[in-house]
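Suppose a classmate hands you a notebook page containing two proteins, each written out with its sequence and a corresponding row of structure tokens. How would you begin to make sense of it? This section walks through that situation. The first entry is reproduced here exactly as it would appear on such a page.
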Amino acid sequence: MSRKIKGSKVVITGGTGSFGSNMARYLLTQDVEEIRIFSRDEAKQDAMRHALSDTRVRFFIGDTRDPESVERVVRGSDLIFHAAALKQVPSAEFFPLEAVKTNINGSANVLRSAIENEVKGVVCLSTDKAVYPINAMGMSKALMEKTAQAFARDYQDSKTTIAVTRYGNVMYSRGSVIPLFISQIKSGKSLTITDPTMTRFLMSLAESVDLVKYAFENAQTGDLFVRKAPASTIDTLAHALIEMFGGKKNQIQTIGFRHGEKLYESLLSTEERVKSEDLGGYFRVPLDSRDLNYSVYFEEGQPRKESLEAYTSHNTERLDVEAVKKLLLTIPEVRQELGN
């Protein structure tokens, strides 16, 4: 009950991004006392200030890489949603040290400040790319998760509960392929896809916000949460949008994989699936709270449980064109593009 959102002062790092801005709008409906938007982009902050026009929202310019600016926004807060990150796979491939500075070191600054200021709860946003990572962005996010779990393990007696939420593809978030496809359809261009058999989870921003709320209010420190979601192939998604937007003349062009791109998304590894708890709509992976007792690793070990498949966009519920169209109509931005 101490981590209820109602009446809390909530910090959102990366608060002007897709996740952060949607989280802020949701929190304003939940009777929060204050929302602190923390980011580097003053132009986006100014636009958000005018769009929300709510005195409960305060704006802080700063960078998670800078401990002093993190301390300034965290002091006196109750909850933190940590969404600030370098998220674009190609960018991180060419500038991996920048991903390390933001995704790992910046996250450590947020967690350290949260514990020192006795914040009640921190939820860190992660990605499917952290599972079996093949690109720098995924590797940095995997180490962000390990950093969060290390803080949770080292400070189990602190007043701060630390949790991680892991997402696959979120529909119509910044950088999502859906607005690109809609733009290509409306301009009469070919829809560019990397591989028609590629699959992606389909989750709305509203559903992702629900997962964060669940984690805030129910997590034990060190927990990792995944929300179950259906998936489709990129080819199915493209055809669904073509049918919805009347793009009968649009062609689909296969252009090949981008730097560090995966054929499918994985939200739980095989090893995590074995340890996970099925909560119905979610999976919960508890913290491995063992300390560095070498006998556990070299002499005793632990028996392996029955093997389970990793949870991926290839083996989850697969949607056809009609089901994808129905799901897309639940997204306000898609309805707006359709003129509904």
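The notebook's second entry, a different protein, reads as follows.
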Amino acid sequence: MIGYPNVRLRRLRSTENMRRLVRETIVFPSDFIYPIFVIEGKNIKQEVPSMPGIHRFSPDCLPAELDEIASLGIPAVLLFGIPDQKDELASQAYHPDGIIQQAIRFIKINYPQLLIVTDVCLCEYTNHGHCGVVKDDYVDNDLTLPLLVKTAVSHAEAGADMVAPSDMMDGRVKAIRKGLDENGFCTVPILAYSAKYASGFYGPFREAAESTPQFGDRRAYQMDPPNLREAMREIEMDIQEGADMIMVKPALPYLDVIRCARDSFKLPLAAYNVSGEYAMVKAAAMKGWLDEKHVTMEVLTSIKRAGADIIITYHAREAARWLNDDKRMP
């Protein structure tokens, strides 16, 4: 009979070199996309109180952050904009000289080695904080689609390498794909926030992006957390509509959704390790309750082990430094 004492699984855990040799899941800096908040103005670098180490930057203050990102081997950034004006139709989201459009052009000229991914949503730009056009206190799906298309096209015109619609309106991937193609951007891919849940883990992001809804919530368009089969339907529809990559958001409470998506679909799969997940680790580490490096790398490894090819994470800079330092160790 095969088993103990002939089989001793601890043999392959005896030393760090042995553990490295048989390690099944390895996280690399090249797996990361780093989210950045860009704000109107000049000479602005504001730390987000609920996200220690994360800042909002005016475009002129981006170089120090981008220099480090590029040097660490992180290949891509995901841009979120905070405009100085908001209105009912989110006009600054698709303005040719909007804050995101400014940031795209700046990065494209000065950091051509970085891949620029842009969040396509209206919540940061509306005066009510919802992700679409509000009519009779209801977010109107079909009235929102043309504005999302205008936003995505304006990002592509500014030089974005990839657009990422996060609004969760039905049909937005199809509409954006059509809009991009008709305007000569058939080579710009779409990373769809396909399974984006109505999560309680977004609180710190809403502070950073000034995007808290002024009434109600987003449960009528973001996914209901108990549902997994519905997530697969959302992903399948986005693929049919032309998505080039798919995403599950948040990551940690939805590792089962990531695994199911990985098993069901062949497209590149991203997972968003969101602001609340980041803030929890940071807060516990600041209290001395957790080993920050150990826990952060355990979190990121779990996301990749679940099946994610790409991890969008606010931990990217620190994790990349740790990984690079570990690689240089004798």
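A careful reader of the second entry would note: The two ends are 41 Å apart (CA to CA).
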